[in-house]
Amino acid sequence: MLHFLPGRIVRWIPILALLPLSIGIRPARAQQATTSESALRRELDRILDDSGMANAIWGVAVHDLTRDREVFAHDDRVNLVPASNTKLYTTATALHLLGPDFRYQTDLFAAGPVEDGVLHGPLVVRGSGDPVLGPRFSGDPTLVFRQWADSLRTAGVRVIDGDIIGDDDVFDDQMLGYGWSWDDEPFWYSAEISGLSYHDNTVDFTARGTSAGAPAQVTWEPASTSYMEVLNATVTTESGRVRESWTRGRSDNRLRIGSAIPSGDADLESVSVSNPTAYFVHVLRETLLAAGIAVLGVPRDVDDLSIKPSYDAPSMRRVARHVSEPLAEIVLVLNKRSQNLYAEQVLKTIGARSGPGSSAARSWRTVRPVLSQAGIDTLSIQLVDGSGLSRQNLVSASATLALLRFMWSHPDRSTRDAFLFSLPVGGVDGTLASRFPDGRARGNVRAKTGTVSNASALSGYVRTDGGSTFAFSIMANHFTVPASRVREVQDRLVEALALHRR
Predict the structure, then answer these.
(1) CB of 152 within 8 A of CB of 320?
(2) Domains of the chain as residue ranges with CATH
């Protein structure tokens, strides 16, 4: 059984509040502007030497995009774990191959004749890998399902005399990434991957304190679904702070909430589900019932069927279709929020162009020519998932820099802009909202963060005082100090780049 950490956001909203930057143990010397590249290189070397992390491995690469020349390199060809910098590779190649206007289509089929208001046969949902079906953009968890209920009524369906079948075969059945940590499974950031996904493949819980000594009130979205079995073992305390306890067994949907919550306070958690496809059709069935459409059958995963649906059969009739937001908007959330599920879904979508059963491995094979076009030696790097949760990913700072240069000069302006605009802005939004609270880099640097245990990265673009734009990749591995100290060094390096005046 696992303990849950706090932190989930149902929908991404630009974060404008400025939070204090964490302070490391060693005080940073006030940074000075540099007026020559040699002086800038000395300053960057000094910051690295002054980091106080002799056991860490740093890989740093900086390129002047305006003048098209190398500015700085420090062990830039050493392969390191990129963490969520992997998302740069996923989003760049997806935008290049699929286009920023690409949209997912999820279809609803009636598999049988309709007589006197009764559908004699199952209802089939055919997934395409859409990662954002749910409240991400609309704010309404069941809006699409209620719209489908309206479509069924328009088609004359009042009763479904059959099962609700979810078809996720566009992707393979590998629901977790290669090399992911088993103890991350119940957390929202490690949600299972599926060709049919809904509500970020999570259930969002709120446990609110009532009166001292009494259980907290527990509510959840979507619509108090019965897909997850909930045991409320909470207690309300008179005062103090929330003491969290959220536990779920592996590969099941039984959740025990044992948090101690002060009266009037609340404990929020987003818990991943096991088998997102079954979750999708379970909530769909609940929504149809609530909308007055009787469903005599049960929700079923297509993998449980001995005979798969034939979409060319005369009895199969499409009654509704949901079209997602364009890829440019999905990638915006993906990189700003660093949303792992979306990265995995987008990666597998690339491989799905060549047929169903797409895997991460197939997709990375598909994008090799793109990475080669970017000037990356694909034999010298290793990518196994789309999000960076796996520590099996290995890339160098120079490889990431080559990718950034490729996207900066991408011939399609809409593809370039979609990539650049998706990156968090220092001191303004996304995962950089609380970093760069002041200084030249604030509101200036656009970069992707990356953090897993003992690995941290920051790669992107910054405008200098001298009018140049620098692309940079800063990676650190094998450190044993708190990650906040590593991030402080990264921020000092970027600030030095922003202060450069030549």
Answers:
(1) yes
(2) 37-100+328-499 (3.40.710.10), 105-175+275-325 (3.50.80.20), 206-272 (no CATH)
